[in-house]
Amino acid sequence: MRMRHKKWAAPELAECHYFIDSPEKARGKWRSMFKNSEAPLYIELGCGKGVFTADFALKNPNCNILAIDIKSDVLAVARRNIEKLFSDNNSTNNNIILTAYNVANIDSVISEDDKIDRIYINFCNPWPKKKHKKRRLTYATFLEKYKVFLKKGGEIHFKTDDDELFEESLEYFTEAGFELHDVCRDLHASSFEGNVLTEHEIMFSNEGKTIKRCVAEYVG
Q1: Do 78 and 48 touch, CB atoms closer than 8 A?
Q2: Ramachandran quadrant class, 2 (left: phi over 0; alpha: psi -120 to 50; beta: rest)
Q3: Model confidence over 80-101: pLDDT tens digits?
Q4: Which of 92, 101, 108, 198 is the most buried (most CB within 10 A)?
Q5: What is the pLDDT of residues 108-155, one digit of tens each?
Q6: CA–CA distances in Å: residue 36 to residues 31, 96, 103
Q7: How many CB atoms lie within 10 A of CB 163?
């Protein structure tokens, strides 16, 4: 579903001190843009309305998270969700940065100097048609780009409701030299603790769909 253009989005993001409107200029310098530049640096690709980003950052104040989405309008909604959650918990956001960019060109805004500790890919578009599978954020060409800036021992945390995407992504990870951990085909029925929900996870779970999860470690 396409999000309608929001006239208030651009003005609100312009006033947001943790929104970066020229991410190319931050390439190789992302760590220095956070208050605690020594903290682990995570990125969420396709952060949507920021439900995961906000909750994760609040629960993990000693970690920094760079949340990326292609649409500025949806990032404006994410900003509102972040502000509300932190306000409701009498806390201040010092560990989130938002930016708008096409993940297909992620190497133009993140470099090996950024030394990313972890990547979150939550409920990305499954692109089920064979001719479109190369657009998946877990596809081989994307994984090769991630390997440039992901630390050795760094991880990709992947969640989806789509069975085919999940099983084929496991193959992509293995073929690209990642080591699989915590492969789970029914997350909510498992004993895993510390799961942070996303808006799509809530929606799909309510529809009766099972949530799949895995961790892919970059072993270098």
Answers
A1: yes
A2: beta
A3: 999 999 999 999 999 999 999 9
A4: 198
A5: 999 999 999 999 999 999 999 999 999 999 999 999 999 999 999 999
A6: 8, 11, 25
A7: 13
What are the tens digits of pLDDT across the range 40-82? 999 999 999 999 999 999 999 999 999 999 999 999 999 999 9
Query: If pLDDT is split at 50, 70 and 90, which confidence band does 1 have?
Result: very low
Alpha-carbon distance 200 to 202, whole Å? 5
